[in-house]
Every structure is written in C-alpha cells, then in structure tokens.
C-alpha cells in the first residue's frame, strides 16, 4: 500500500507511515455510529481512548505545547481515514487539529494555551468555533456580537447560532466586533463555557450528525480577561477579518478531508455491492448506466482528493493553506461527498434508505448533507473563486 501511495500522490516515507497509522486507528474504532446518532450521544470515551493510545489529538500542536509538530498534510491524512469509518470521531479530531484548538496552540497567549490544550489533547474537551448569527450567515460583515474593551477585560454581548458542539464544548472561539462596521473591526476571543453571562440557549436536532449537535449560545455581560483575545480587531481596518479567514482556511481544508474520507467510505461499500449483487443473472456492475455513474464519481472524488492534498502540501509557515486552494478543495470535496452519498442510496435500493447499523449508507448521507453549507456555502465559495478570477 505504501509504495502505491508514494507513487500516486508523491508521499514521502513519513506521509506513508502517517497514512498507514491513521488507517489502523480508523480500523480500531467501534462500529457504533448508528447508536451515537440515534441517541445523540457524543463518544467521549472513544475520543479519550484514541488520545491516550495514539496521541492523535496533538498531531498538529507545536512541541512547546506538548504537540507533535505534525504538518497540515498529516492532519488531513488522519481526518480522511477516520471519516471513512466515523463521521463524529473524524469531526472531533478535525476540530482539534485544524480548528480552534490549533489556532489557540499556534497563536494564543502561552498561559491561555497551557490552560485549554491539555484537556483537548486528552480527548476530554472540545473547543467550538462560534461565528454564525441569525442575521449573519454568509455575510460576515453583518456580525453584531460585540467585544467591548475595558481595563478589567473584554465584555462580550451577542448571540451565536448553529455552533457545532456548542453545548458540549469547554470553550468557544467567538468571532465578534471590536467596534467598526462591515468588514472592519472583526476579531476573535476565547470564551470559556463556564463564563458568567454565557448560556446555551438551545440545541438543534438536524437530519444527521446528532452525536455532535449544534447549539445557540447567548452572551450577556460575559467578561473574559484581555489575554483571551486571539485575533484583535481594529475598528478602522479589515485586518482582523483577513486573519480570521486566513486561519479558517485550515478548517476548510479539514472539512475537505472529512468529505473525501466519507465519500471514499461510501464508494468502497457501493463498489463491493455492485460487484457482488446480481439481478436477472447480471451483476449490477455490468449495467452501462451504473458503470458511467460510478466512473464519473470516482473521477470527481480523485480530483477533490488531489486538490485537498495540493492545498495541504503548499501551506504557509503557520501551517495554513492558501485561501484559493482551500476554497477549491472544500468546494470540490463537499460536492462530491454529497453526490456520492446520494447516489449510494440509489445503488443499494431499499437497503439504501433503511436505517440501522446493518445498512450501509443512509446515515452517512444524512451526516454529509450539511457540508456544502458549513465552512462556506457552495455559492459563497464560488463567489470567492469568481472574484479571484474576474475582479481586479
Ligand atoms: C453542519 C453544519 C455545521 C456548522 N457549524 C458551524 C459552527 O461550528 N460554527 C458556526 O459559527 N457556524 C456553523 N455553521 C453555520 C454555517 O457557517 C452557516 O450555515 C453558513 O455560513 C451559511 O449561513 P446561513 O445558513 O445563515 O445561510 P445564508 O447566508 O442565509 O444563505 C442561504 C443560502 O443563500 C446563499 N447565499 C447567501 N449569500 C449569497 C451570495 N452573496 N451569493 C449567492 N448565494 C448566496 C447561500 O449560499 C445559501 O445557499 C454550520 C452549518 C452546518 C450546516
């Protein structure tokens, strides 16, 4: 396997071994996603065990925070492999390695990072990222959550919605406004879950992914110390928003990795089914329409994977991908993941829509659907690519 990967994707020996290690970790996960999904149970014990047995949750943290100084590519390979087996475990690992915990490890004040990273590394805590508001989804310039700076700290006022893991997280990386309007004045502050004035208002039930549900969070006169600012905002400048988007590129790429893993997992199950199931004396795989459908999807998936690996390989000195490359990867990967998981339902017939552990794709299709919305909708990513292509 390793020599194939080296020649197909130009992996060096280290990347081959990370990929193999990741595949082993994924193979060791319990087949319990259906139960977690049905009962809305987050698998803390699995995350804890993964952390303890492998150190996977520190892969991209810097050595000064007891991390392994792993590359973005290392994280992408791990998340991809985990997503082939378990959406919720992959998402939790992705949040740590490519999301708010990584930003804290890389850019946070040392004392703040030392307080919050050990429980994340141990698999006993999550840090969420809270950006979206009822009136500010795609349009980040409409964000109204306020950070008022005082000598004694920062006062946070506002309401966030649809924050992944919002009710489970030990802390939230909140994007808000240090004054200014539109794109000016935005920044990010870490707000611990136990902060007075912070309340989880509600948790949303959704079509899939209920083991790591989203929540709405209210901040009313919630105060944090000044060293909890991760990205300062200047009311006269859009530099804070640019830095938020620069860091968010790693999140986008992690979502791409989750999507290609999920899509590959579904594809593998479909291919096995098409090769083995016969109807009317013929394998399903022998029907021309089926063959072209899956050949096209395999091509689309490989393109998305190559875009994802390219973006992961060409990161800056902070381990962050270029905006354009992460955008292309996330767009391609989320679209192909939705396409493959939907077509997988068709390929399995009634077994495709039946629910439960013994049925191969129904839950995965529900879990995957949100990824053309989360992390930048398809349309907003196309807007950004069009802007790069067509505007001065
Ligand atoms: C699974 C999932 C997890 C999420 N996790 C988080 C999280 O952890 N933290 C967080 O803060 N948020 C999270 N979100 C929210 C997500 O960031 C928002 O849903 C997303 O930014 C879009 O905002 P909206 O849903 O308000 O849609 P809107 O902005 O209202 O858009 C609705 C539709 O209109 C389209 N549209 C909007 N503007 C334009 C335009 N200018 N041009 C063309 N089309 C446009 C959009 O593409 C979309 O199709 C999550 C969402 C999902 C689905």
How many strands, what sense, and barrel or not for the largest sheet? Answer: 4 strands, mixed
CATH class assignment of the largest domain: Mainly Alpha
What oligomeric arrangement do these chains adopt? single chain
Shape: globular
Number of strands: 10
> What is the level-2 CATH architecture name of the largest domain?
Up-down Bundle
H and E order: HHHHHHHHEEEEEEEEHEEHHHHH
CATH topology of the largest domain: Butyryl-CoA Dehydrogenase, subunit A, domain 3
Low-confidence stretches: none
Tally of individual helices: 14
Helix-and-strand structural type: alpha+beta
Distance between the termini: 46 Å
Number of discrete domains? 3
Proportion of residues in β-strands: 15-25%
Radius of gyration using CA atoms only: 21 Å
Question: What is the helical fraction, as a range of percent?
Answer: 40-55%
Q: CATH-wise, what's the superfamily of the largest domain?
A: Butyryl-CoA Dehydrogenase, subunit A, domain 3
Whole-number mean pLDDT: 97
Strand order of the largest sheet: 1-4-5-8
Secondary-structure blueprint of this entry?
Elements: H1 2-9, H2 13-27, H3 33-39, H4 44-54, H5 72-85, H6 87-98, H7 100-107, H8 110-121, E1 127-130, E2 146-150, E3 153-164, E4 171-177, E5 186-192, E6 198-203, E7 214-224, E8 229-231, H9 239-276, E9 278-279, E10 282-283, H10 288-313, H11 323-347, H12 350-353, H13 362-368, H14 378-390
Parallel strand pairs: 1-4
Antiparallel strand pairs: 2-3, 3-7, 4-5, 5-8, 6-7, 9-10
Helix pairs in contact: 1-2, 2-5, 5-6, 5-9, 6-7, 6-9, 9-10, 9-11, 10-11, 11-13, 11-14
Flavin-adenine dinucleotide binds at residues 128-132, 137-138, 162-164, 214, 370, 373-374, 377, 379-380, 383.
């Amino acid at each position: 396997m390793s020599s194939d990967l080296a020649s197909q994707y130009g992996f060096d020996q280290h990347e081959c071994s990370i990929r193999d290690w990741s595949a082993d970790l994924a193979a060791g996960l319990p087949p319990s996603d259906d139960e977690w999904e049905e009962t809305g149970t987050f698998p803390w014990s699995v995350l804890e065990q993964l952390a303890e047995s492998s150190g996977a949750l520190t892969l991209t943290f810097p050595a000064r925070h007891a991390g392994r100084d792993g590359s973005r590519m290392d994280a992408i390979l791990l998340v991809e492999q985990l997503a082939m087996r378990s959406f919720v475990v992959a998402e939790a690992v992705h949040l740590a390695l490519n999301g708010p915990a990584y930003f804290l490890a890389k850019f946070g004040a040392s004392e703040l990072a030392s307080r919050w990273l050990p429980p994340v590394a141990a698999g006993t805590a999550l840090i969420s990222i809270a950006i979206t508001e009822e009136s500010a989804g795609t349009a980040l310039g409409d964000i109204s959550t306020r950070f008022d700076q005082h000598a004694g700290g920062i006062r946070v006022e506002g309401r966030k919605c649809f924050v992944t893991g919002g009710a489970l997280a030990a802390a939230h990386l909140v994007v808000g406004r240090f004054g200014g309007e539109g794109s000016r004045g935005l920044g990010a502050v870490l707000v611990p879950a136990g902060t007075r004035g912070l309340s989880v208002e509600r948790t949303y039930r959704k079509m899939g992914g209920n083991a790591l549900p989203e929540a709405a969070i209210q901040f009313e006169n919630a105060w944090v110390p000044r060293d909890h600012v991760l990205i300062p905002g200047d009311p006269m400048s859009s530099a804070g928003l640019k830095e938020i988007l620069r860091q968010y590129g790693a999140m986008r790429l992690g979502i791409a990795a989750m999507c290609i893993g999920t899509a590959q997992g579904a594809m593998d199950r479909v291919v096995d089914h098409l090769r083995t199931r016969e109807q009317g004396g013929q394998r399903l795989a022998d029907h021309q329409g089926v063959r072209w459908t899956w050949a096209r999807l395999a091509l689309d998936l490989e393109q998305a994977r190559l875009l994802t690996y390219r973006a992961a390989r060409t990161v800056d000195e902070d381990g962050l991908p270029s905006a354009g490359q992460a955008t292309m990867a996330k767009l391609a990967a989320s679209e192909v993941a939705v396409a493959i998981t939907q077509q997988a339902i068709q390929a399995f017939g009634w077994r495709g829509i039946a629910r439960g552990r013994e049925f191969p794709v129904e839950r995965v299709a529900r879990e995957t659907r949100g990824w053309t919305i989360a992390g930048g909708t398809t349309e907003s990513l196309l807007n950004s690519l069009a802007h790069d292509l067509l505007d001065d």
